[in-house]
Amino acid sequence: MSDITTADVRAELEAWLEENWDPDLTVLQWWQRLYEDRWSSPAMPVEAGGRGYGRDLTSEVSTVLAEANVVGPPTGLGLMLAAPTIAVHGTPEQVDRYIPEILDGTVAWCQLFSEPGAGSDLAGLQAKAVRDGDEWIITGQKVWTSGGHMAQKGMLIARTDPEAPKHQGITYFAIDMDQPGVEVRPLREMTGQALFNEVFLDEARVPHDAVIGGLGAGWAVANTTLTVERASLGGGGKHPISVPPGPIAGRLQKRVGDFTDRANRGPDGEGGRGMGTDAMINLARAAGNADDLIVRQEIVKLHILGEVNRLNMLRAKSGGSRTGAEGNLAKLSMSEMVRQSREVGNLIIGADGMLAASESATGGVVQEVTVFSPAPAIYGGTDQVQRNIIGERVLGLPKEPGPPKGTPFRELLQN
Ligand SMILES: Cc1cc2nc3c(=O)[nH]c(=O)nc-3n(C[C@H](O)[C@H](O)[C@H](O)COP(=O)(O)OP(=O)(O)OC[C@H]3O[C@@H](n4cnc5c(N)ncnc54)[C@H](O)[C@@H]3O)c2cc1C
User: What is the CATH number of domain 109-227?
Assistant: First the structure.
């Protein structure tokens, strides 16, 4: 695998696209082609439907798909988080049961981790799972569940043993969202959209064979999900056009070519391409201030942040890691890039930035990024938490004071 170069990947994928991209396919048919030829998630191991590519080759696949202006693999937390987690911790039977339907976009997943009293202190979670024969009965509340309203499955962490120490009594489940014990209520953000939800679990049921990674091993499994999340959020590179998976999102039977036309792109940023350096240069040219020295300087600052992050992530590829904190650094770097995009975007469009996105002469992207910009510093673990991890695990600084590690969860102060 190691002797494959990015040039090889580019050549193979460009030839494949020449043969296979057809705007008249349905979204589902297109995703099935991507899956069958292992382009949906090339970073996944070969036995789980991927190609075992490292970060640089994976990023090249995204870049080629983006440059070809085709719809990318099914976006969402299934492909980004559930599949890689199950590939590491699932049994071979679970890999076969869950992963193919994620990679071809037929099933959408959400992440049921955060609770009203457990965000940064995730291991303090209180949702409980009680065994009932071959099933588990789940009761509790989750919050900030992105895409919960469109998901058929959830990555759920719940407490199965309150007598065990905090981090040891947690188990990771794959739960069916479509059942009487699961209620999903949307939360509206300041962007005007409702991308995330509260989820109430009232005696919801999960079969025992949907435990991922073993009873009481949920903290280690959740950490795999969180590690993948940090690295993907800050991963950089170009992103192909994104379309949400699963039947509830309602895109599977649509013509795939309809999503490659900007005019037809849907709400929620679907199909959007963010605000990278190229987008900023185009925006500045259109606004007539591409020669302004300050504007140029700020765009270059954004470019440098992106390049430093790209080089940082190259270190993380197959064994090249220097500190083990590349994922945390990437996540911090992404928060910074979004803030810098917001600053330079508003510098370019000036007073237009005060208009609602729908009334803006510059398309509204800057306004959307502006109201969304606080989010990346919070989701996937806040910036402060990333710094704590770097401080404690990489720099060897003393841990925050707390009760002895072995204290049973039941005896700890509960929020
Ligand atoms: C857009 C968005 C999407 C999300 N999607 C999901 C999802 O799909 N699934 C899911 O499970 N969760 C999701 N989250 C939740 C996210 O993971 C949490 O918001 C995050 O972990 C912070 O938890 P909290 O909101 O409870 O804040 P708190 O943990 O209450 O933190 C509040 C503040 O205190 C700081 N703080 C807390 N502890 C420390 C400490 N020890 N040291 C220093 N500072 C500290 C934090 O940095 C923060 O500034 C999403 C959040 C957002 C914004």
Answer: 2.40.110.10
